[in-house]
Amino acid sequence: MNSAHFTAGVDEPAVVITRVAEMQWHAVADDRVVGRGEAFRRPDGRIFLSIDSWRDTVFDQLAEAMLAILPTPLHTVVDEADLDLTSSWRRVGFSTGRREWEYHLPTDPRVTGLDTVRPPSGVTVTPIGAARQGPLREVYDAIRAEVDVTAGWESMPTEVLVRSDGTAPLDPSKYAVAEQGGRYVGLVRVVSRRHHARIGLVAVRADDHRRGIARALLANVLGALHRGGVDTASAEVDESNEAAKALCAGLGARRMGSALELVRR
């Protein structure tokens, strides 16, 4: 693999940056790995970077080697509270693309006010794990196409891995869905752990907005989590998504922090 040699500063050993794999770089000084860089392509085609090094000079050298090869635009995500890491990425030419707020939602229906919520007329909610693969794929693809022509799918907090043919596998065990007239009109993706759960996606077909379907889905999902002993669920919301922020606020969610998506064009 290709290597780049960097001269050392005062009292610092020389650094060799080596591309050890197609999307991985190592920084080595005195036969010791002092930094790592990695690039990965998300399902929407965007390339995201990560660099791990405690020395600013090594961070900059890894960034220089990676940026010389990879096509722009390039992205990375940082905790906004991590001022040092944010500063490092800005130093090598990245700027804020968008901000995502993290919320913690209570699951107790007496706290969220969802104890009396029912699906709108003609709509039924299928709980997590019982969705059918075919209709789930249909509603996922339809919602993605709708979002792509408005806010853009990159504004959604998706973490669905992509197959080699470019499609995203959907695991019904992680989804609850709303159904009307034989088709799915909304979905929620949930990743559960022992004492916590993450709401990865809440979405409803555009023609079915403002009917209370999202609240009905969340009532079902959060209620099930509460009965299973999970007290809190986390969710990420794009700063520009006023409807999602209002929904979280209405459920008694607490805003816990924020992440920045930085971009270099």
Automatic annotation (TrEMBL):
Species, as recorded: Kutzneria albida DSM 43870
InterPro entries assigned: Acyl_CoA_acyltransferase, GNAT_dom
Organism phylogeny: Bacteria, Bacillati, Actinomycetota, Actinomycetes, Pseudonocardiales
PROSITE patterns: GNAT (PS51186)
Name this polypeptide is given: N-acetyltransferase domain-containing protein
GO molecular function annotations of the record: acyltransferase activity, transferring groups other than amino-acyl groups
Pfam families: Acetyltransf_1
Domain N-acetyltransferase per the UniProt entry, residue ranges: 123-265
